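Hi Q.,

Before the meeting this afternoon, I wanted you to have the pyridoxal-5'-phosphate prediction in hand. No need to reply - just skim if you have a minute. The sequence and ligand are here:
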Amino acid sequence: MIVPNLHYAELQDSYFFLRISEKSEAYLAAHPGEKLYKMGIGDISQPLCPAVIDALHQAVADQATMEHFHGYLLESGLHELRETIAKHYASRGVTLSPDEIFISSGAGDDLGELLDLFAPESRALVLEPAYPAYVDTNIMSGREIIHLPASCDCDFLPEPDEQIDADLIYICSPNNPTGAVFTREKLKTWVDFANRRGAVILFDAAYEAFVTDPALPHSIFEIEGAPTCAIEICSLSKTAGFTGTRLGYTALSKELVRHGMSLNAMWLRNRTTRTNGVSYILQKGAMAAFSPEGRRQIESQLALYRENASVLSAALDQTGLWYCGGKNSPYLWMQCPDGMKSWAFFEYLLHEIQVVGTPGIGFGDCGEGYFRFSSFGNPKDTREAAARLVSLLKR
Ligand code: PLP
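Predicted structure with the ligand bound:
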C-alpha cells in the first residue's frame, strides 16, 4: 500500500481562523441585530483600481482575436512585466535583471514551492511570531524547524545568535503579525549572518508597499550582501488588491550560489517543470498596477489603509498599553491588558465592545498574551472599533 507523506500527521489542525469565525457567528446568533467590528481580517476590503480593471478587460478582449491571442507563455512570466518590475526595483536603487524576477500566482505559492530548492535535511529558522505557512510548509517537507521567539524586549525584531544552526531563515518585514519593520542596520546583521553561514534568507516582502519612512528598506536587496544570500518573495495581494486575483513575484539573484549550483538556474528549471505560468490576463492586469496611473490609484487605497492604521494607533496610544506596528505596516500588535491570555482578550473584546481581532497565540507560542489588529477594514468600522477600544481600555 502506498505510504502517504506522514509529516502531514504532524500538522496542527488549521482550526485557528475557523475558531475565530465560529465564535463570531455564535455571538451574533446569541445577540441578534448586533454588529461586529472586524479588525482581525488579513484580507483587503477595497476593490481593484480602475487602471487594473481596464487592463484586465483589454487582455480578455485580446484573447478573443487571432491577432492578439496568447497561448502558452514563458513559465517565469511575460518579459515586459519582469522588465517593469526590474525598473520598479531600480527606482529604489536595486539592480536586478528581468531574468532574476519570476512571476508567480502569489507569495503563498512560492513560499511553499521554493522549498524544493533545498535539501530535506536543511534546517529552517522561523522568527516568531510568524505567518503560519512558514512552519507548516516545513513540516510538510519534513524539515527540522528552529523556532526563534521574539518579545517586546526587542520590539519583536530578534537578532541572529551565532549558536543558531540554521540553513534557511524566514524574515518577514513589515511583519505579519507584529507590524514590526527591520531597519537597514538590523537587516544587515541577518544578511551578514546568512553569508557567513552559507544560509539562505527567504525574505517575505508581502507588505513592503506599506513602508513610507525613507529610512526603512522595502526590499532586502537594498542591503549590501543580500544578492548572495537572499530570495525575496513579493505579492500584489496587499499592494494592489490582488488577494482574489492572484499575482506575485519572486526575486532571486544570479549571484546566489550554493555548492556550486546557481539557485536562479535551479528555480528556472523548477518553474519550467512545475508550472506553465500565470495567465496572460492577470499579467496584463499586473502591468497596469505598475503603470504611473495604476500606482497613483493604488496609492490612494494604501492611504486609506494607512489612515485606518493611524486611527487604531491613536486609540492604542490612549490606552497606554504596549504595542508595536501601525506605522509602515498594516498590522498592530498589542500586549493584552492585565496579563490576559490572547483568547481571553478575544472573548473580552467580542462580548464587551463587539470588536473582533486575532489572538496572538495563532502565530506561535510567543504570541500568547498578545493580540493583532489589521487596518484592512473599512474606515467607518475602524473608527468605531477604535472609539470602543478607547472607552473599554483607557485607564
Ligand atoms: N506572506 C505573508 C506574510 C502574508 O501575510 C500573506 C497573506 O496574508 C502571504 C504571504 C500570502 O500572500 P499571497 O496572497 O500573495 O499568496
